[in-house]
Amino acid sequence: MLKYSNIAIIASFFGLWIDSFLSQDLQIYVGFLLIFSFGILHGANDLSLIKNINSQNKAASFWKILLYYVCIVLSGAALFYILPSMALLLFIIVSGYHFGEQHWNSKVQKAPPVSKALFETSYGMLLLFMLFEFHLSQVQLIILDITGTKVPTLLIQNLFFLLLFSTIGLGLFLYFKYQANKESILIELFYLLVFAILFKVSSLIWGFALYFIFWHSIPSIIDQLKFLYGQASVKTFKQYFLSAALYWVISLIGITLLYF
To answer: Which residue from 14, 149, 213, 226 has the highest number of Cβ atoms inside 10 Å of its Cβ?
Structure first.
């Protein structure tokens, strides 16, 4: 049976092949369809995960967790309206940590929390800035649309190289200091090459959608299935989907309302 990472590589390059048959507009529609399906779904079960983590704490009731969660989401949305530049910066940093944590959480467990978090954030942001680097003009237009500020090309390029060197430096530090798995590091370096090809060859939305679905969302769902139900199977995915369906629909409605 193929490992999931092998399936993800095949799916990614199949996606690049499909890219040549899709118009730019169709790529955007299909890309967002993927992001709004598996992409949103993988984050829709946060409440179940938090509740499971806090299952030993009787004070952490479902409604208390829900209240905290809604407050965080609304605060983030409000920040985008009040201070869009700061909100976007925080969004990129948090997203970077989220992506890096998915790739490395099980591989650098021996490292102290601070070193681990710094490395995971640097790695995840490197992925984002690699995508930005290959699609500079489009990214600058998007940032201009959100914040009203045009980000200089040199700034994005300098941040990309800064993140590249910081990721290499932190990675070497974790390897020599805390005996991080050498095989995992070599494999992740190979994956970085795959992502570079993916981002370079494809359009901005299509490249991000392929990475976000096959390399982040689906692996995250598999991890969540194992955490919540003890195994990843069709049966547990059905349970997961039914548990997340309401929050998934609410998320889609919220995104639609914010868009209009």
So the answer is: 213
Quote the pTM value: 0.86
How far is Cα 83 from Cα 94, in angstroms, rounded to an integer? 16
